[in-house]
Structures are given as structure tokens and as C-alpha cells.
Amino acid sequence: MPPKRSTLLGRKQARTQIDDQRARQGASRAAESPEQRQTRLGDQRGRQASSRHAESSEQRQTRLGSLRARQAASRAVETPEQRRTRSEDQRRRQAASRAVHWTFMEGEAFRYYPANNYDSHPQLHIGQMTDVCSYCDALKWPGEVPGMCCSGGKVRLPALRPPPEPLKSLMSGDPSVLCDIPDR
Fold first, then answer.
1. What is the pLDDT confidence band of residue 141, given thresholds at 50, 70 and 90?
2. Is 145 helix (H, G, I), strand (E, B) or coil?
3. 44, part of any domain
4. What is the pTM assigned to this prediction?
5. Does residue 146 form part of some domain?
6. CB burial class (10 A; 0-12, 13-18, 19+) of residue 149?
7. Res 5 pLDDT > 60
8. For residue 72, what are the CA distances in angstroms to 43, 63, 117, 175, 184?
9. How many domains would you assign to the chain?
10. Which segments show compositional bias classed as Basic and acidic residues (predicted)?
11. Residue 101 CB contacts under 8 Å (≥ 6 apart), including other chains
12. Which residues share a beta bridge with 132?
């Protein structure tokens, strides 16, 4: 038996309403200011986070499973050109995301401030110099190439000569010598 005429009209009407709503949202988003966009996206992130926080692990697995199925179905019907375009877009997004993490250091070598504690920054922390070179006893970072400091024992620097007398007495830390220095 064919479906009732009113059911077909109802579906067509619902599809038209969805298309109209999509067009209104597109026009509204095109007209919004950057501040309004940030506010809208922030609100949306908050709603999404609270929704995901409230879902159970079974609901999460179901949601992720249906997302995987939709993505697999979408990728199964895409053309090689669409696949290349999608891959290029993903590469661009990933490169931009990686670059954002290091923009705070851009040009920092030209604006070095000794007061900034660069070595304690989490993105710059490479560990302590705990390894000792077996050839020259220099401190090295873990994983540093052996012999990088002295070319595997091929380079030997002469021992430092003791400093001249005025400098030697100042470096000794003797308070009697330091008292003789006039204040300026």
C-alpha cells in the first residue's frame, strides 16, 4: 500500500523547514562580529563539555561508534580527489596547530631577558645535565651523542692557568680583601 499523501507532504515540509533553518543560521553567522562568534563558540564548547561530562561510558562508546561508522561511510564514497583534498586540509590544520605551540618563542632570541626563567618552561625543558663524558668529564644531557663535546677524546684543552693576583684574591671570597674595595 502506498504511503499516505499527508505523510509525504509532512516529510517534504519538514525538509523545507530544516533547509530554511540552515539558511537562517548561515546568514546569522555571516553577520556576527568576531566577539559574537567567540561568545557563541565558547557557549557551544561549554554545552558540549557538560553534555560529554554527563554521559556514561556506554553512551560515550555508542556515540564514538556511530561517529566512526559515519566517518567510514563518508570515506568509502569519497573520490580520490576528495581524499587528497581532505588529506591536504588535515596536513595544513596539523601544521598550523603545531606552529601555534611555538609562537610565544618567535623572535625571542632577539629579545632575551635574563630575568625570564626559560629553562623552567614546560615546552623548553630538556632535563638536567646528569651524564658525564667518559673522555673529558664534561656534563651532558641524557641521550646526547657521546663525544659531542670533545670529539671522542680527540680534542684536549690545556688546563686553565691560575688568574693573576688581584683577581685571584677577589675570587677567593676572603672578606678582608672585599672590605678594601671602596663603595661607589
1. confident
2. coil
3. yes
4. 0.40
5. no
6. middle
7. no
8. 30, 14, 47, 77, 77
9. 1
10. 32-61, 78-92
11. 123
12. 139
